[in-house]
Design goal:
transmembrane helix; 452 residues; CodB; Cytosine permease; Hydantoin permease; membrane; 71% helix
Length: 452
Amino acid sequence: MSASSVHANEAPLTLDQPAPRVLSFWDQSAFWANLGVSLFAFSGAYTVLAPDEGGAARLSIAAGILAMVVGTVIGGFMLGLAAVPGARTGKPAMMLLRGLFGAKPSYVPTVLNIAQLIGWGTFELIVIADAAEELFGGGPHWLYVVLAGALTTVLTIWPLGSVRVLRRFVTIGVAVALLWFYIQFFRAGLPDLTANPGPSGSGPFGSDWNLFWIACDAALAVSISWVPVAADYTRHSRGTRTAFTAAGGAYGLTQIVAYILGLFALALATGDGTYGPFLSVTLGAAFFLILVVREADQSFANVYSTAISIQNLAPRVDRRILSVALGALITVLALWLHMDDYFGFLGLIGSVFVPLLGVLVADFFLRRRGAWNTAADAPSRWGMIVAWVLGLSVYQLINPGDAGVWTDFWEGMRDRLHFTAQPWMSASLLSFLVAVAAARLIGAVTDRRARV
């Protein structure tokens, strides 16, 4: 395949080739809508109801739905903002950070992004294999992992073609499956959604309002996990406005639909497996198979963006080689690891990338208004790095999560500062606002000094 045909029809092979603007609004909407529907919404819905370290269900289903909607709406708006710079500049996400932090400092968030994407890709293969095992009543777990890894790798080699396939063939099937499960769950008769499974008398929001905001942050973190990769896809958008609407709107809508369905499944669960409520309804196995196979688009997006992130470090490495190597890596990891620390993983993602988005919003939209230097020698901008660290620190002080040594450090820092998180504090919102304010203030000081 010649370089010109690759440019015209597919994502470029290296970072120094231009990105074709070939994705329509419907291409992008279908892509982001499918990413919003994940088996994580079913297997991970419990993290919204039980966001405390003990894992005890402390929120009612109704309160969990409200927390999930609030978190997803905010996260969807943030995702839409993250989509705009890619559409405006034609550059992938980690390359954009050269303009925010400088070329060499951008390597730090790039490495963090690579690590979190490999983690997400691995988790997705585990979820696919677990769901397939439950769907078929057993079977070789390793085979399901290998098949999911192979499908992921194939999709990743032709990323823009895969996006078009999602629009033409997959989206309608997923929509029909979701509608079918909603109808069947309502026919089965949902229990009292306002009943609190937590301590007696604690009310629908649990014994502590802080749990509600932690639950919001858990839902928001799922949306935020796509923020550091949004530009990898919207750089192929035909317009900036369509990129914002497709990413923020389509993704947010379907994540709400999927998570509510997952919370309903929890209400109907009788201990017959994670996906028992889906498989027990009429034609449940057939429609659930659609969702299991479609889940590969999640791992595909993670692997492709990992390859593009690596290209920020090594711009001339062929993304196809990276895709095959990464597909093999996450397959091996999925055969070895288990999905135990999901909530702690989400907390770490949020603490890193929510404030990073705040700095990007302040600098790209409010200060420099899109004038962006993504060259390999872009100068270091330590002021923006300071703003990012400040936002990250605020997030961790409010919600240090459950991530071992990392959590121990921030809990010790809270003790030294005599800081106590209040029930009204949202780690995501406050860290975002602090990062925006710090970036604006530091940027204003830098501009004033430059004029003197």
